[in-house]
Amino acid sequence: MERKALVVDSDVFFVEFLAGLLERRGYHVARAYDGKQGIAGLDAGPYDVLFADLVMPKVEGRRVFEAARRRFNGRCCPLVAVSGTVIEQMDELDTLGADFYIAKGPLDKLEHRLHEFLDRLERLPCPAPGAGKQILQTGGVFPRRDALELLESLEFHKAVLDALPAGVVVLDRDTRLLNANPAALALLGRPLVEVLNRPVIEFFPSAQAAELIGLLKATARDPAGRPRVLFSGMGGLTVRAVVSPLRTPREPSGWVIALEGAAA
Description:
By secondary structure, the chain is of the alpha/beta class. The protein folds into 2 domains: 3-149, Rossmann fold (3-Layer(aba) Sandwich); 164-263, PAS domain (Beta-Lactamase), CATH 3.30.450.20. The chain is 36% helix and 25% strand. It is built from 9 helices and 11 strands. The strands form 2 sheets. A 6-stranded parallel β-sheet has the order 2-1-3-4-5-6, sandwiched between helices. Strand 1, helix 1 (12-24) and strand 2 form a beta-alpha-beta unit.
């Protein structure tokens, strides 16, 4: 039977490099170019192996691994982080969610290491989840100051978002959830792994779906980006939802919804 693999990375060149290597070994490869697409790609599983980068826009690699374990009851397939930040995140491996960690490096050395890894994996295709947290280095890879600074910046901004007393939900352009802080998750009554890549209308009363979509469209069309307000019932609370467009210098990116609840 043909083996199946899912490759998730925001670097298109690297996706094609790894997918090509797997295809030459006889795998059918599904490709995803960010973590959100990776979570959506789980619908085409199960897979024999899943590769994902750790640092990606929209949804990070650890969330892809969490979603995969949840989707397939903890034993989906070997989960492999192939990332340029493995060395810089050595102290966090227990929280990153993969079974194996391969540091990106020179492609000739990385290709050789990946073939060795797959040879072993195909002989022993069912490792226990999280077994060993094995780290496979390509040689000549060392912690880099720029990567450490990037990770420190991401951690700082995450800490700010987590500390906010108001709920914050981030939506992609298709109105699906990219992120939610702890205050928002408390109002939604679900963990993050359950809300990622779900349509936002699922979390509001069905009678307000049209109104909410109308507000999203109105803010997107407004050149001034003025927020719109919706009051809704959510988890036994009356929630004030403030909808604002999320815009990057290149193009509109989605929306941010601030949620504030009070006892009904």
